[in-house]
Amino acid sequence: MKERIKTRMVGQSSAVYGIGFIGALIYFIQHATSFWMGFMGFIKAMFWPGILVYKMLEFLKL
Hints:
By secondary structure, the chain is mainly alpha-helical. 89% of the residues lie in helices and 0% in strands. The chain has helices at residues 2-30, 35-60. The longest helix is centred in the first third of the chain and has 29 residues, at 2-30. The N and C termini lie far apart (34 Å).
């Protein structure tokens, strides 16, 4: 029973991450002024959740 719940929760978080990745990718690429800025936007889109958590913890001083 626990395995079903765990699998179901992983699927939901993957969907949220996927939608966030697509949104961030579109945002960064739209604002890119060159190919390399677009490439950096792709890299930023992959790592934005980690950066967001880091900044939040830094703000909360945890």
